[in-house]
Amino acid sequence: MSQPVADYFYELPQDLIACRPAPERDASRMMVVDRASGEITHRMFRDFPSFLREGDLVLLNDTRVIKARLLAPEKRIEIFLLEPLGDRRWKCLTKPGRKMRTGAAVAIAGTQARVLEMLPGGERIVEFLEGPDLEKHGHMPVPPYFKRESDAGDDERYQTVYASHPGSVAAPTAGLHFTPEVLAGIPHSFLTLHVGAGTFLPVKTDLIEDHVMHEESYEISDATAKAANDAARIVAVGTTVARVLESRKEEQLEACSGRTDVFIFPPYRFRRVGAMLTNFHLPCSTLLMLVSAFAGKDLIRRAYAEGIRERYRFFSYGDCMLVV
Known about the structure:
The protein is an alpha/beta fold. The protein contains 7 helices and 17 strands.
C-alpha cells in the first residue's frame, strides 16, 4: 500500500535545533521508548549502560568524518567531496554549479581542481592536480541547518571518540554521546559505514515508494561478525548500524564489505536489531522512516510530540532516544 511522505512531517520550533553540542558528550538527555508497553520515560544518556542486559552487544559505526568542504574564496567556489574515485579523482558537489561545468578549473586547497564530467544528478567528477591536504585546507561538513560555518570545536565534537576509518561526509550522530569511559564499561564492537551526503536529506517524492535511496559503503570485520552472532541482543547505535545489519541476508553474519542502498520504512520486520539508540531526525527523512519502522509510526509520532513539549534538543548535536 502506498504511503505519503507527508505522514512523516512534523513542526519543529527553530529554537529546538541544536547548533552546538552539549558541554559534555554524555550530558545529553535520553528519551526511552518501550515498544512493548508504549511507555515513554525521560533519562540522561549517562543512564544508557543500565538499560543493557546480559548477552547484549552494543554495535557502533567507527567511520571518521573527513573535512570535505573545500573553499576558493577569491572565486567564491565551493567543492564538497562526496566519494573518492582513485587517482586524485572525487565525486563532488560544487557551488555555484554554473561556474564548474565540464573543463572548468579552479585553484583550491593548495592544488588545482578540474571538472572532468557532469553527472545526471548534478554531481561532478573532479580531478585534482595533487591530492588536497584535507586536514590543512578542508572544513568540517557540519549540517546546513546549523546556519554557521564550522569551527575548531566542530573538529573535535562532530566526530565520535572512536572514529577510526576516514570516509564520511556526515557524522553518525548517535555515537557522538559516547565517551571512552562509557565505552570501557559496556560490551561493544564496531563496523564501518561511510555516511554520505544524502543521509539527512528529506525525501522529495510524494510517495515513499518512489524515493531512490543513496548508496553507502560498509565493512564488517571477522571479530564483529562473530560477536554479533554470539550476542543475545544487538543494540544498534544509530540508523547507519541498523542499515548495515539489515542489508545482510545470510542467517549468520559474515565478515564482508560492500555497498548498500537499503531503504527501511514501515512495515518492516527487523532481523538483527533488538534495540536502537538514535538521535531525533529531520521531518520526512529516511532516518525518521527507519526509526518509525523499528518502533511503530504512531509511537514515534507520539514520542516526537513529547520531545517537543519537553524541549529536547533535535538533530545532529541534539539529545538521543533509546528504543527498546
